[in-house]
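Translate sequence into structure tokens.
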Amino acid sequence: MRLSLHYLNQDHQNAKALEALDSMESKIPERVIPMDYRVLYDVANFYRYAGATDKYHRYIDEVVAKLVEITKSRPREALGQTNPYTLLLTIYESREEYEKAIDVLNTINDVYGGANTTVAQQVNQRIAQLRAQIVTKNAITKDTVAVQPQRNK
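Result follows.
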């Protein structure tokens, strides 16, 4: 992984980064030695940065599946960048799956927000922002459909 990161960051050699990642997968397959969701998330993003979106999507789908299972047990680890809820929220937002992101935020509020009014306030603000994005996305989609030319039959 470090070699791939080196190629991505220092040399901007995407082909070599992909070669290193593919070599890692062939020698130590994830199906044989499962990766922690945080490591798998990094691998997915390395593929994305290197331009291999198909592999990014395959890995990020695995991350989502793992995170959904983990969050079912409602863990209470510290909120931070690698918290399961935070990663799941980030992925859903990047996919523009805003309703799922709002569900994650509601779970964060349930798990962390009870006695912590700051968390509850931040969650509610973020939900309002996501609802606004949903409205905007729907308006753009509606406008795009309305603007498409009619075909002669």
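Note: The two ends are 55 Å apart (CA to CA).
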